[in-house]
Design a protein that fits this description.
Layout: H1 7-19, E1 24-27, H2 35-47, E2 55-59, E3 78-83, E4 111-114, E5 120-121, E6 127-128, H3 139-156, H4 162-172, E7 183-185, E8 188-193, H5 204-213, E9 220-221, E10 245-249, E11 252-253, E12 262-271, E13 282-289, E14 316-323, E15 332-340, E16 362-369, H6 384-389, E17 394-399, E18 401-403, E19 409-413, E20 423-431, H7 440-443, E21 444-450, H8 452-461, E22 468-472, E23 475-478, E24 482-490, E25 496-504, E26 514-524, E27 528-539, E28 548-551, E29 555-557, E30 562-568, E31 573-578, E32 584-587, E33 590-593, E34 599-607, E35 612-623, E36 625-631, E37 638-645, E38 653-657, E39 663-668, E40 675-679, E41 686-694, E42 697-706
Helix pairs in contact: 1-2, 3-5, 4-5
């Protein structure tokens, strides 16, 4: 049904998700674009169902056109098209009917459902039956089928997020209609897809079964960045710098990876749901050379080493896995996996290690296998950026640090532009200023080394620029902040290599010692189009390091202060502390901080005797409150919940829920007190979750056992 938007429609959606607590919104209507309706739908999917998100289902529209109607074209809704009795998309001449309408189709279509001769009711009573020739037709009739399936899924597993409901419906859909070509499409990561049928016909039995199988599985995730709380579609991801994937050697964090050496990789896996996850789930770890474009599973292969063809060099490989213990709701586990960085040159594979360099730009990818779908995992060409930010159980960290005392760092160039003929490509160096406004070429000599084949391609064009000096044998001295190498006629089916190294010409203060730059790659298609980048970080290190360590509490209440301290194995170290923006916030071996949001602090230590420098960092998480104790626990008759709340919490309430998410006790919290007594006489024996919330946002959750 087409309609004209007005405030009552927006108010209706708001009432449904915010006041009535609707789990599923079935919307058999469409209309012209309206920013108010977009905002309200996003509120419903972001905030509904206590943060799990309402499932919003829309009819695709009856215009028989390429492109589903608004709001069905929003990415966070389920767009439903209509099929005929013959199992084909409804068109004006489908099956034996002559319709005046046809089901819309296109890029945003998710699934299809029956939309022809559907029994329904009249407005004032009675039934509209197909036998009378007047059954209900249209995508408006198809939409409620899918909404009903979503409701059934949540009835057996109310802990599912809306993104998980949507993914399961798409993954389990049946591929029907012999005339349609279902194919891999990177924009649709949960199985083969067709622009006329979406993922296929909604399958209620399969979808409900998958939802049921996940009913006792906690939702595990790895942080993409410090404020990540486990949301799918984590649009806050910045680059590829997952803070809780760490490389450890001799008890300290390292950034530079050397071939043949052994490391410990630590991965923090968290449970963002309100139910525990059983033991036996796994986290898998793969490595890759860093390239400007890394499709999932082309760089991170499942076997240790793999050559794709005679021209390809090693992309990466499988490191290992860690079997996780049970992780409580809101809890975490530190997984540890041993890794020996491969040394291909000394293994006899000289062709895979250009220049005999033993240090390269390295990326690690961690994947948690907790039973939930990982979108794009079945696609060998799925873009790694989508793979990371669309899946909360996937995270990546790059280690691309240039330090003068270490060998040049190697990275690879490959292409997502497919062509049967050589493709014109631009390779561009682009630096970014440090905290003092200096670029790397202002304080250091910057060298790029092309591999033999890339050098040959450059020599064909001899694109001489005043922004670099060619030193011969593929070696370039960069002299400007932005330098472009144009018109490389590259083979898009092979990989090329660039290494980079620096020689600092002036000393830098600690706060100005970090200078990033990118290697950007563009392909030519009626004008240069961006293809991808390699991120480097050059660090002034004065050719020497010492061990320095930051210690202290890692979690505080808003308004509280905490002291973090520094230590070192050396005796004459002077310490300085910096915030995330590079501004100095203190000196000495102690720093008192009272952060208002989660903050990362960087420690720099310098030894004049050793003429050496060392680095460490610490993250202080800010919480609005905490359950400090539940006593007794286990309990039989009553238990006392003690808590602390920050000063900005104006009101809060306490609830007790079972493993199915059903609330069995709730009460407002007296803000002048620090504890609350719960009577348990009416609560059956079992495991429960005590939760404190304020204005719909969870503050803390703890487990309670009732005997």
């Amino acid at each position: 049904m087409m309609t004209t938007f007005s405030s009552w429609i927006i108010d209706g959606i708001n009432q449904a998700w915010s006041n009535l607590g609707a789990d599923v919104l079935s919307c058999s209507w469409s209309g012209g674009f309206n920013s108010g309706i977009v905002s309200e739908i996003f509120y419903a999917t972001d905030c509904g169902r206590n943060g799990k998100g309402c499932v919003v289902v829309f009819s695709a529209g009856n215009g028989n056109q390429d492109g589903v109607s608004f709001p069905s074209n929003l990415y966070n809704v389920i767009s439903v098209g209509a099929i005929s009795k013959c199992g084909e998309r409804v068109t004006p001449d489908s099956c034996q009917y002559n319709h005046s309408w046809g089901s819309n189709y296109g890029d945003n279509l998710c699934v299809v459902a029956p939309g022809e001769d559907i029994p329904t009711t009249y407005l004032n009573g009675g039934y509209m039956l197909p036998s009378e020739g007047n059954g209900f037709h249209g995508t408006s009739a198809a939409c409620p089928h899918v909404a009903g399936v979503a409701a059934l899924m949540l009835s057996v597993n109310p802990n599912l997020k809306y993104t998980q409901v949507k993914a399961i419906i798409e993954k389990t859909a049946k591929k029907i209609g012999n005339r349609y070509n279902y194919h891999i499409d990177n924009s649709h990561p949960y199985g083969t897809w067709c622009r006329y049928m979406g993922y296929g016909l909604v399958d209620a039995g399969a979808a409900v079964q998958m939802a049921y199988d996940l009913r006792n599985v906690g939702d595990l995730y790895i942080k993409d960045e410090n404020t990540d709380i486990g949301n799918e579609q984590n649009l806050m991801v910045v680059g590829y710098n997952a803070p809780e994937i760490r490389i450890i050697k001799d008890g300290r964090d390292v950034n530079t990876i050397n071939a043949g050496e052994q490391y410990e990789v630590q991965i923090i896996v968290r449970n963002c749901s309100n139910i525990s996850t059983p033991a036996g789930k796994k986290v898998r770890l793969n490595w890759s050379r860093v390239t400007n474009y890394m499709p999932w599973n082309k760089a991170w292969v499942s076997s240790p080493y793999q050559w794709l063809n005679q021209y390809d060099l090693v992309h990466g490989g499988y490191i290992g896995e860690y079997v996780l213990p049970g992780i409580a709701a809101g809890g975490l586990c530190v997984a540890s996996i041993s890794w020996t960085a491969p040394d291909f040159y000394n293994m006899g594979y000289a062709f895979v290690q250009p220049f005999n360099i033993n240090s390269w730009s390295c990326a690690l990818l961690a994947r948690v296998e907790d039973g939930y779908l990982i979108g794009g995992e079945d696609y060998s060409t799925y873009p790694i950026y989508d793979f990371v930010y669309k899946n909360n159980n996937v995270a990546r960290r790059d280690f691309t640090v240039l330090q003068e005392a270490y060998p040049p760092v190697l990275a690879a160039i490959e292409y997502n532009y497919h062509s049967v003929v050589p493709c014109p490509v631009r390779i561009q160096y682009q630096s970014h200023p440090n905290i003092s406004g200096q670029h790397l070429t202002d304080v250091a000599r910057v060298y790029l080394q092309f591999d033999e084949e890339l050098t040959r391609l450059w020599e064909q064009t001899r694109d001489i620029s005043h922004d670099y000096v060619y030193l011969g044998n593929g070696l370039f001295l960069i002299t400007s902040h932005i330098v472009s190498f144009d018109n490389f006629q590259v083979d898009t089916n092979r990989m090329y290599f660039i290494s980079a190294y620096v020689q600092f010409s002036i000393p830098l203060q600690e706060e100005a010692s970090v200078l990033p730059f990118d290697i950007n790659v563009y392909y030519y298609d009626n004008g240069y189009q961006f293809g991808g980048r390699i991120n480097y970080t050059a660090v002034y290190d004065n050719n020497a390091y010492i061990d320095v360590f930051a210690h202290g509490c890692r979690s505080v209440l808003l308004g509280d202060s905490v002291i973090i301290t520094a230590s070192s194995s050396e005796s004459d170290v002077e310490y300085a502390w910096y915030n995330r923006r590079g501004s100095k916030v203190g000196i000495g071996d102690e720093l008192r901080v009272a952060p208002t949001i989660t903050q990362q602090y960087y420690l720099v230590g310098r030894s004049e005797t050793q003429n050496a420098i060392g680095y460490d960092s610490i993250t202080i998480s800010v919480r609005r409150g905490a359950i400090t104790s539940i006593s007794p626990n286990p309990a039989t008759i009553q238990t006392l919940v003690s808590y602390r709340l920050s000063g900005d919490v104006g009101s809060a309430y306490l609830s007790v829920s079972n493993s199915m998410g059903q609330v069995v006790y709730s009460a407002n919290i007296n803000m002048s007190q620090t504890s609350h007594l719960i009577e348990l006489s009416n609560i059956p024996a079992g495991q429960y979750f005590v939760r404190i919330e304020s204005q719909g946002e969870p503050i803390d959750v703890k487990t309670l056992i009732v005997n």
